[in-house]
Amino acid sequence: MNLMPLVFDRFEHYVKNQAPKVASFHPHFEDALWEMVLNGGKRFRPQLLLSIVASYKPKMLEKAFAPALALEILHTYSLIHDDLPAMDDAPLRRGCQTLHTKYGETSAILAGDGLNTHAFYLLTKAKLKPKTKVKLIQCLSYNGGIYGMVLGQALDCYFEHQKLPLKQLRFIHLNKTAKLIAASLQMGGILADCDKKTRKSLYKLGLDLGLFFQIRDDIIDTTQSEQEAGKPTQQDTDKNSYVNLLGLEGAKKEAKNLSDSILTQFKTLNPKANKILNELLSHYFIF
Amino acid sequence: MNLMPLVFDRFEHYVKNQAPKVASFHPHFEDALWEMVLNGGKRFRPQLLLSIVASYKPKMLEKAFAPALALEILHTYSLIHDDLPAMDDAPLRRGCQTLHTKYGETSAILAGDGLNTHAFYLLTKAKLKPKTKVKLIQCLSYNGGIYGMVLGQALDCYFEHQKLPLKQLRFIHLNKTAKLIAASLQMGGILADCDKKTRKSLYKLGLDLGLFFQIRDDIIDTTQSEQEAGKPTQQDTDKNSYVNLLGLEGAKKEAKNLSDSILTQFKTLNPKANKILNELLSHYFIF
């Protein structure tokens, strides 16, 4: 029996109960702070982390919820800031008003800032050994900061109107998207006390997964209607995208190569991880 | 002989050599990232931290530089974001262009985000025991995040155009300014392995210091010219400020009470700390 949907349901329930109680004389900031965390999304990164823990050390699952939440709220802050007028200027996210549209730009910047910092506070409060906490904080701050996600986002914005060669586009996506996904798997590996070799394999797998998802998004943007994709499409026509650089067929071939490699990498993990990751991810590999 | 100026000089030299080497195909982000860290300021928070370490465990001074830098870059990110168009919309900071004026708003938001996260990365890399690192990260993320600085800033912005009672104004300043100053002294206490009672006293002293500096700033804004103060003054005339709430004499009395209490608290610390903190701070108590 596949227990992961139950674990993910429990995690979702956990998230709803973790809104921080901020002692203040006014609820405005507190409301803004947790709204985007509650307003769901797929919890893709926590699911990756929890899948690895469930595969390698299921008895750690309970203690993995706090780090999974830390990962999710770091991701959430990045979405709040990505949506800002100075970045994507997006009115909607997941079908709802973006945070700055509802609460104003100032509150959105500060809610993002607060969640960024709070991710690390949560990790210090987790029921884990200090050594494990430090490893998790290091992994998250490296991949989610200036050596990863923030660098990628900065380059992506800076070169928005300049055509880049494939190598540089890949560098941007590796940093902007793939490194936090790699960190999700690696944090799972840290929590499950996997050996160094497995943690390294998990990280490499996460980078490939991140790149795959980026190419897949570019393909979906070109080929699907807004209704099919569940989000606005045809947005990338003048952007740096794999489809624009490689053509649709070239991008599809690249995606196929990556998904083949990913499925092969699944098999190098333990049988349980192979099974759980296949169940979680392999439907993404058909499009 | 007073060795602290030498320590502070060494710290300044250290900061200049700590610009992170970000592997990228373009230097834009890296340039933006470290510019405000280099563009000085008084390094007030690191000086507080280093003063406590020098007083209670001088052999830890070398290892205290990384945490002192983490504290400074968290403070720096907050200045970068405070200056943004959606907040103070400031063209100048410390006599130089603000980061968003020079590099654009997008880069300034991201440089701030990156520095916020990087503060915690730096703490994980410090040459300290895991347990000490976790304590420092917890102290910084609690006081510099949604339970402290970010909450205070959010409330300050939200109530910018509403007159607040003294209790609420004090709550804002306690969070926005005082808690990070309290964290500076407490992080010093953690590094010097001070007992719980001393760490608590240091924290309380920091809160009072933070409030004192806020009232002092309000008084200077009212009484000094731009030339005397070294920064634009007469900015707070329609703002929530101690002078507007208590009148100039009332604010001066409040500042005097606080500085008296602070000097008394210095005396409860060890003689070296009393001496160093007096040398560092007592000239602020005359105005």
Secondary-structure blueprint of this entry?
The structure is a homodimer of 287-residue chains.
Chain A: H1 4-16, H2 28-38, H3 44-56, H4 61-82, E1 92-93, E2 96-97, H5 99-103, H6 105-125, H7 130-143, H8 149-158, H9 166-191, H10 196-223, H11 226-229, H12 242-268, H13 271-281
Antiparallel strand pairs in A: 1-2
Helix pairs in contact in A: 2-6, 3-4, 3-9, 3-13, 4-6, 4-9, 7-9, 8-9, 9-10, 10-12, 12-13
Pfam family, one (chains A, B): polyprenyl_synt
Family (chains A, B): Belongs to the FPP/GGPP synthase family.
Cofactor (chains A, B): Mg(2+)
By oligomeric state, this entry counts as homodimer
- CATH topology name of chain A: Farnesyl Diphosphate Synthase
Order of helices and strands of chain A: HHHHEEHHHHHHHHH
> For the report, how would you describe the main beta sheet of chain A?
2 strands, antiparallel
Coarse shape of chain A: globular
Chain-averaged pLDDT of chain A: 93
Portion of residues in helices of chain A?
over 70%
> What's the architecture of chain A in CATH terms?
Orthogonal Bundle
CATH superfamily of chain A: Farnesyl Diphosphate Synthase
Protein name (chains A, B): Geranyl transferase
Pfam family, one (chains A, B): polyprenyl_synt
Family (chains A, B): Belongs to the FPP/GGPP synthase family.
Cofactor (chains A, B): Mg(2+)
